[in-house]
Amino acid sequence: MTIVDMLRQNARQYPNEVALVEVNPQRHENRHITWRDYDLVETTDDQPFRREITWSVFDEKANRFANLLLSRGVRKDDKVAILLYNCIEWLPLYFGVLKTGATVVPLNFRYTAEEIEYCLEKSDANVLAFGPEFIGRVEDIVDRIQAGRLLFYVGDDCPTWAEPYQELSALCSSSDPQVPLSEDDDAAIYFSSGTTGFPKAILHHHLSLLQSAQMEQKHHGQTHDDVFLCIPPLYHTGAKMHWFGSLASGSRAVLLRGVSPKTILETVSSERCTIVWLLVPWAQDILTAIENGTVSLGDYELRQWRLMHIGAQPVPKSLIRRWLAIFPWQQYDTNYGLSESTGPGCVHLGVENVDHVGAIGVPGYRWQCRIIDEGGTDVAPGQVGELCVKGPGVMECYYKDPKATAETIIDGWLHTGDMARQDEDGFYWLVDRKKDVIVMGGENLYPVQIEDFLAANDAIQDVAVIGLPDDRLGEIPAAIIQVKEGHTLTEDQVNKFCLGLPRYKRPRKVIFAKVPRNPTGKIEKPALRAKYGALDIVDKENRR
After folding, report:
1. Inter-axis angle of helices 135-145 and 113-123, nearest 10
2. Cα 351 to chain center, whole Å?
3. Domain that residue 478 falls in
4. Tally of structural domains, the chain
5. Sorting pLDDT into bands at 50, 70 and 90, what band is 197?
6. Mean pLDDT across the stretch 314-341?
7. Is 338 within a domain?
8. Higher pLDDT residue, 59 or 288?
9. Of 245, 264, 291, at which residue does a domain stop?
10. Closest alpha carbon to 517 in 166, 281, 260
């Protein structure tokens, strides 16, 4: 069995039930209409733009794209890249690629033209399907990428240098090509977040995707009656693998374009969503909007919302305490993972373990975990070491990078680069990224612990702690603090608040600024270190 068989099964079992809904709160006339067809439902101009497709149409669209690719010579071992914003076309295209036996290559929609070119070359992608928002970026590199590569445009008014996907696929058969697939076949190349330079290409087999779907349904108990709200970008393993729970249960999912508190709550209410995966900043924004009266819970129907879960980054305990005080009927879960482990879930808290909020949890379904020291030996409970995971979702390799693969996968164990500890109850606690640890005067400081403490301050919207160079101590901790709208905060107030921390953990420098995060919610600490580390050096030079 492969992930493609789940789509086929849903098309047979629930042919006329809605599989996917796209909701875009932007006004109709400002939208790029990327797929107009008889089976897509559009609303009036004064409502959020909305489209939906059934499971049978989903499967049919995947079949048509697969047959288009096959007619152009695409076969197993070929690579097909997708560059789209979240939309109703995204997943049928993804499954169309898989149905050919080729490998699908989702691309980050924030990539520059040069990064797009790099990823196409790195992955050996010989096909690119892209949307209207990317015409300019693709055109910048088209002379360099066009030779030997098919370019399919997903939208209206196709550029002269590309081919119109919609027109061509409509002429192709809607029958399933039935290309034989096994769990050991290559399925997808996902790129790492790339916050430390050009991203790595991460190759997964079909087994990894199947594991993710089965694990997601197991962890969150998804049934056919659930409705999953998907907000993060589908190019990332997090959003995709959480949606796989909807695929496994044959249930409806809503793709939302927009992350404002009002937009999220309106969509949960109108679409009757039961499961929502949020990133930390979005949960913070919702709580702030409720607390300052920007939104009123009485305007929405939210009682059906049974589960809120968060992943992709450490979650402040204070955030979840605030959340459950407002939504006491909800279950809560957090999921830990990385693209090399097919995204979230190799460690997860579990809805039954809310008393351990703050921990990333226990090994996920079919996963094993261990914590090791620099020599590769397991550390004692309570001690900090590198978290390693092992299971059926571990990547096959970094594509075309055997050296990095050998350094990351040792005896089947994936070395995550995250520092963690295990408590006496068997729960794992994320301490920090190995590369983010601050060494001050020989003492290891873990920024996440300081960030978690500062996040409990009612005036702080977001916070990042980084190490800055220091002549005497090597590094010192600096806190970049984003203050909540309508609040004020001074450095003296921050320092007074930090008296609750041990002296050596207190920030030595406070900077009030916006905390940058990438599309998956991770703090862009390399950018912060580059910005403020350079400024700090200049300040020291000016003082001499």
Report:
1. 50
2. 20
3. 438-543
4. 2
5. low
6. 90
7. no
8. 59
9. 245
10. 281
